Amino acid sequence: MRIVMVGFGVVGRALAERFLRDQRYLASNFGLKPRVVAVADTSGALIDERGVDLERVLYAKRKAGSLAKGMPDEVKPLSSSELLDTLDYDVLVETTPTNIVDGEPGLTHVKKALSMGKCVVTTNKGPLAIALPALLELAERNGSLLRFSGTVGGGTPILDFGRMCLSGDRVVKVEGILNGTTNYILTRMYRDGLSFEEALKEAQDAGYAERDPTMDVEGYDTACKLVIIANYVMGLKVTIRDVRIKGIRDVTYEVLKRLGESGKTIKLLGVIDEGGLVVEPREVSLTDPLCVWGTLNAVTFYTKHLGSETIVGKGAGGEETAVAIIRDLIAVKKFLMKGLGG
Prior knowledge:
With 342 residues, the chain is α/β, with parallel strands linked by helices. It folds into 2 domains: 2-155 and 319-339, 3-Layer(aba) Sandwich (Rossmann fold); 158-314, Dihydrodipicolinate Reductase, domain 2 (2-Layer Sandwich), CATH 3.30.360. Helix content is 43%, strand content 21%. It contains 14 helices and 12 strands. Strands 3-2-1-4-5-6 form a 6-stranded mixed beta sheet, sandwiched between helices. Strands 8-10-9-7-11-12 form a 6-stranded mixed beta sheet. Helix 6 (106-115) packs parallel to helix 7.
């Protein structure tokens, strides 16, 4: 399987390390033999159709911060779009940062690859939040496959679990804690009496929150993930423009303390039901399976016949998300083999 990796940040590097560490395991257990023919970051692209030396690339990135600085004689000053136009490959692994304003540059990368009949595995929520219905149609029209397990729940298989709930049944409602940063903040406020500002600073110091926490605390990250669940699990053709969004800045310790006395707390929930798609702080019983703490994620799928099923797990992290990419690459391999009559 010839792979082009566009984006070589935390997730991309974790995936490269996994390829190196588990090469024999992936081949013997799943028949997955990835050959990375190009790696690109914002500084340029390293190309070797025989297979890029991932150990050298990882060392260069760690040492110099960019591929061009670490390997100046070998990295070509190509844009990622130019790279995708010129190289022969089977799968694009797209892990550039999320941009929910216009989805770029990830949206262009994904569209270009799918329009050429290439399969795509992405962890980038931006293109999916803005244009997932159109991207799925593009993949189907060109006989390719778009996979994105790592966009929701990191390594926890929330999307596949939701699809499993559909087997012989129908998912009629979804509720979930989909952002570990806000769950951490609300946990610290509830358990330790911190103000929102104090809990946010602690989350930033611990590396759970960005310097600009808007995506998390205003609910946009949760909204992106909710859109992905709605399309993939429930078959709804929606984008982030269809989501009503409210963040957690107005939640106070005083309110949490009062709710705690009655066996409740507040969580930032993403909800899909007959009322549409909503992201907002809501009261949750302390005995509800959704009431998880710290940076954990939890999603409950309500089905027509079997009732509710809840999945809980870590919501983020480079190594965890790399697991999801591997899972998707295995699905792509099966898809490609089926196309070859295998």
